[in-house]
Write a structure and sequence with these properties.
It is found in: Cell junction; Cell membrane; Cytoplasm. With 109 residues, the chain is of the alpha+beta class. Helix content is 28%, strand content 31%.
Length: 109
Amino acid sequence: MNRSFHKSQTLRFYDCSAVEVKSKFGAEFRRFSLDRQKPGKFEDFYKLVVHTHHISNTEVTIGYADVHGDLLPINNDDNFCKAVSSANPLLRVFIQKRGLEKDISFGFG
């Protein structure tokens, strides 16, 4: 067994309850983790995303890519839980300034 290999592994390889989130706003990407079993509420996730991207004063719409590549909205607790539970292994999140949603359709039609 190669111990140095195991030491270099990140938390996501050891903790199956962690979901790695890769969020994109404009040209900037951020990564963070959530607990798959207790992801929390949408409102807290929204605050985390805008804080992580340093866009606290900006109204945004959040969406995610499902397993089929479709962009779906994350705008309430149910959608948020569905997004976290479907992440395998990565949850890809896309953030768009509110009012510009027509540029990227998050399953709104």
